[in-house]
Each structure stands twice: as C-alpha cells, then as structure tokens.
UniProtKB/TrEMBL annotation:
CDD domains: ABCF_EF-3 (cd03221). It comes from Mycolicibacterium komossense. It holds the Pfam family ABC_tran. PANTHER family: ABC TRANSPORTER ATP-BINDING SUBUNIT, ABC TRANSPORTER DOMAIN-CONTAINING PROTEIN. This is ABC-F family ATP-binding cassette domain-containing protein.
Length: 589
C-alpha cells in the first residue's frame, strides 16, 4: 500500500508529562483507523501532530507529495458573522452546488434542519459542530482526521456519517483517522484500531470488537493487568459475542478464541433477581404517564403519551435532537408539568438523574475528592460484594493521586465520573441517565456498564450512543412526531421509522385517491398503538410471573408447573402480537 502520511521518532512533552517518546506510526492508502485510549493519554495530540496542527518537540511528520489532509478538531473555528450557506458553499449559486451529489448528500445527512441563511452566531453549539463537520466533508481529501465527530450527532446522523465514510473512497484508496468513544461507530468504520497508552501507540487488527478480543488475549498472556480489569474486558467481550450477529462477523474476529475466553463468564445480568430486588425497593408502582401532552409556545412537543414504567425495567429512549427527550425526562422527574393528562408516581419512588449540567458537583467545587468521598455512605454493593466509595471511584477510572485534587480542578471526564458516583450513591431506586457518554473514554464506558449490570432499580437512559443503549437496556422506545413508540426491533427499527417519517409527513392524504389511503393508514396506526399497549402489558405480566416463580416453594412441583403453563401462554400471546405488529408496521410504511 502506498504511504500517505506518518510520523518518525516523535517526542512530545508538556510541563507535567511526557506524552510520546520516539513514536513511529504510518497511514497508508486504504487504512481506516480508529483511535482509542484513556482521556489525557494523547489521542487528540496524536491527530494534531499527524495533521500538522501541533509541532512535536523532536522527530518529524512525513507526508507524500500532494497529499491533502482534512482535520476536524474539537475547537470551534467558524466565523459567527457568516451564514450557514456561505460557510458550506461560499458564493456558489444554488444550481451550482445542488448539482454536486456529494454536496447534496452531506447537506441532507448533517444540516438539512438548519436554515441556509441563518447566521452562524445564532446557532447552538451542536448545530455549529454539524456545520463544521459538513464543511470538512464537502472538501476533496486524501486523508481525513476526525476528533470526536459523533459529538452532537443523533443516532440518524451517526449512522449517516458511518455510511458516508465507508463509501467515500474506493477500498484501497484514501485514509481515515478517527478518535471517538462511540464503539458502534468504531466497529462500523475502522479496519484497524490504535490504542494510545503509556506513551505508545499499540495497533490491533479490526474494529472495537476485534480490539477487545486481542486486548483480553494480550493481557492474559502477559499477565500484566489486574484480575478485575481482565474480568471486565472478558465481560465486555461476552456481551459482544452474545449480541448482534453483525459484531461477530467482522474480519479477523477469532470466534473460537472468543468462545474459549468467555466460556466461564456468567450472563451480564440476572433479570429475575434484579426484578425481585427492584420490586422490593419500589413496590409495583413507579411512574405512570397517562395520556400526557406538552406544548411550548403553542407548538406540540409530546402528544398523548401513555407509558407505565415498571419496577426493574431498563429502557433506552431514542429520538432526534429536539424531539422531546429532555421534556419526557422532565415529566418523569417532576420538573415539567403536562398541559393535559397526568403523571402518577409511586409513594416509594426516589429518583436521581445524571444530567448534562453537573449541578450535583456545584456544592463541592472547593473540596478535595477524598473529602467528598468521606461524606458518603461507607459501602456499595457490586455483584454481591461490598466496596467503598473510593474503590468504586477507582473502578470508574480514577487514580489514587486524583483523590487529592479539588473538584473544581478536575477534567471533564473526571467530573463526569464523580458525578455518576454521587448520583448512584444517593441511593435512588429510579435512575435516569441523560447522555451519560459525554466526555468519557471507552474504558470508562465499559466500567460504567459493568456497574449498571448489578444496579437493582428502574433504569432509563437517553443517549445517541447505540452501543451503550443496546448494552445496558433491555427495551427501547422512540419519540417520533411527538409520540412515544415501543421498538421491538431496537435501534434498527428506529432508524427505519425515522427515515420513513419525512416522506409520511410530507404526503397529502387528500390528493387523488389519498382519502381512502389516509383512512386506512389511520386505522392501521390505531391497531399498531393497541398492539403496543398489549405487548407492554404482557411484558409486565411476564416479568411479574418470573418474580413469583423465583419466590415460589421449589418443592411445590404442581404449583410451579401451573405457573410455567401460564408463562408459556403469555409468551405465545406476546409472540403473536409481535408478529401482527410487524405486519402492520410494514403496511404503514
């Protein structure tokens, strides 16, 4: 493969640390490289040196003559006085840029919802980030380097970006370097993974799933990592192997080796035991949203929401930016009052929310981390074992030297970890996580997921991180056109529905022959909603029956047989309903 760019004997140091010492790496035609590592270990610095934005203390960066390199870093470089259209296409007339399919694709994938004549200064931070990414992707580059490109993108945007990068160049041309904590995205676009750690860059074949396998093997063979870290990676690998089939079909993902490594790893969660514990802590009533609607400035945000949240449920919420996810969380938390309908809460509910504001840290800014920990309960249970708050924080990636730092001096990722710790140790029985992956690396995400596996309460997660949602929740819902819709088909189903939504919204049922079609569609949608309600009701009955069976006298064979018969009948009814739901969904497209 022809060389595109690289680095020879790079040395980079800052006043407090040596980041790299004699680093040599290369990027060739056809390379698609994902870069992972802990926050602060040098991922962004590596990209900046390779693209020429940061000059190393010694060594040199090599680049083939004529190679064009595009770089998206984490700084905002847009001119606030420019319009969106001018940033993206300059002074080109509409017919000129609209005739370029690449430009049309980027506009449709990233900025279709942003006004062309809007001033950049009037945009939100997320919108500015998308405009900046779109501007980069419209250029002709031989190498593209992206630093956290999925930040501020919703699930549809992340899926579009992955597809764009996979088809942007021919298989043996172009080069991609991407730093991201989005593990689904890594698996989609990366053919090689670089792990940045301890001043070096260690290469692995394949995307995130293959990297996890090789890392477990490396750690086991070298016997250099603590047992708890090995077990955590093995648990992560177990989920990857037992999850979506697509993950295990990646090139060079050695299935036999994976099976050998995880043969003694138990299931990630014991749903019966967790449901039993959650019911004991919460009772049968958690939060019910009963025919709830919310509007802002006469604009409907949520419409006719009917959702009964049960004890021990683990639910992921999907939706485009601005769809109403934060409003839905506000209804659950009691900070938003509905215009109609009512919200009913169980008497024993104690809710805690990990939001994006880090408000829980405000009272501790001047304190040292160890002083904050000293104020907390003395232990916490993980996988049936008691651990102290300091041990829990260590599991979340804190080093012992960080315990003497003041809260106000912590990095974004460290603050997020401490925020999660304080939220969990407030002893809620309903935990709401709003975009919990912000400012954290892949190791921290794996540790968080491991912690949540044994958390015995109701869990609600709003996130654009597809991997996280599929990993820690057992069911997903989406907000589409202001309504809450259950997703038996998970994230894939959401993407299909979201893609079809604009066409449906733009259709005119009163046009030629449309009256009858509109009526049929309305009837179908009503039946779909009824089926979803029945499926949700049966799911709760099945969960309750599992709890009953777990508590039942094991010697009462006749009673257990009767309970098993009832369970099988409910499962059969649920299967029929889901089949009917799928038929109706296909008709309504």
């Amino acid at each position: 493969m022809a060389h595109l760019l690289g680095a020879e004997a790079l040395h980079l140091e800052f006043p407090t640390q040596v980041v790299f010492d004699s680093l040599t790496v290369g990027v060739n035609e056809g390379d698609r490289i994902g870069i992972v590592g802990r926050n602060g270990d040098g991922k962004s610095s590596l990209l900046s040196m390779l693209t020429g934005e940061l000059i190393p203390n010694s060594g040199r960066v090599t680049r083939r003559t004529g190679v064009r390199v595009g770089f998206l870093d984490q700084s905002d470089i847009l001119d606030g006085a420019s319009t969106v259209g001018h940033v993206l296409v300059g002074d080109l007339a509409d017919h000129e840029w609209a005739g370029d399919p690449k430009v049309r694709d980027v506009v449709g994938g990233l900025v279709a919802d942003i006004a062309w004549d809007a001033l950049v200064s009037t945009l939100s931070g997320g919108q500015r980030r998308r405009v900046q990414l779109a501007q980069l992707l419209m250029g002709d580059w031989d190498v593209i380097a992206l630093d956290e490109p999925t930040n501020h993108l919703d699930v549809e945007g992340i899926t579009w970006l992955a597809g764009h990068l996979k088809t942007r160049w021919a298989r043996t041309s172009g080069g991609l370097l991407v730093v991201t904590h989005d593990r689904w995205f890594l698996d989609e676009v990366a053919l090689t993974t670089w792990e940045v750690h301890d001043g070096i860059v260690e290469p692995f074949d394949g995307g995130y799933a293959a990297y996890i396998l090789q890392r477990v093997e490396r750690d086991r063979q070298a016997a250099t990592m603590e047992a708890k870290r090995q077990n955590l990676m093995k648990k992560e690998l177990a989920w990857l192997r037992r999850g979506a089939p697509a993950r295990t079909s990646k090139p060079k993902f050695r299935i036999e080796a994976a099976n050998q490594l995880i043969e003694d790893v138990p299931p990630l969660r014991n749903p019966i035991e967790l449901a039993k514990l959650a019911t004991a802590r919460l009772g049968k009533e958690v939060v019910d949203l009963l025919d709830v609607s919310v509007s802002y400035d006469a604009r409907p945000i949520l419409r006719d929401i009917e959702w009964r949240i049960g004890p021990g449920e683990r639910t992921g919420i999907l939706g485009a930016n601005g769809a109403g996810k934060s409003t839905l969380l506000g209804l659950i938390a009691g900070t938003v009052t509905p215009d109609s309908g009512r919200v009913k809460r169980g008497k024993t509910v104690k809710l805690a929310m990990l939001d994006q504001q880090a408000g829980i840290l405000a009272a501790h800014e001047a304190e040292m981390v160890r002083e904050v920990l000293a104020q907390l309960q003395t232990d916490f249970q993980v996988d049936g074992k008691d651990i102290t708050p300091a041990q829990l924080l260590e599991r979340l990636g804190f080093r012992r030297e960080h315990l003497s730092a003041r809260v106000g001096e912590l990095s974004g990722g460290q603050r997020r970890r401490l925020q999660l710790l304080l939220t969990i140790l407030s002893e809620p029985n309903v935990l709401v996580l709003d975009e919990p992956t912000n400012d954290v690396d892949t190791d921290m995400l794996a540790a968080t997921e491991d912690l949540l596996d044994s958390w015995p309460g109701t869990l609600i997660v709003v996130s654009h991180d597809r991997y996280l949602l599929e990993r820690v929740t057992d069911q997903q819902y989406a907000i589409l056109d202001g309504r809450l819709r259950h997703l038996p088909g998970g994230v894939d189903e959401y993407l299909r529905l979201a893609k079809a939504a604009p066409a449906s919204a733009g259709s005119n049922p009163t046009s030629s022959g449309g009256g009858s079609a509109g009526a049929d569609l309305y009837t179908t949608q009503k039946e779909i909603a009824a089926a979803e309600r029945k499926i949700a009701k049966i799911a709760k009955q099945i969960a309750a029956l599992h709890v009953t069976m777990a508590e039942h006298d094991a010697s009462d064979y006749a009673g257990l047989a009767e309970l098993t018969t009832r369970l099988r009948a409910l499962e059969a009814e649920n299967a029929e309903l889901e089949d009917r739901w799928l038929e109706l969904s296909e008709f309504s497209e």
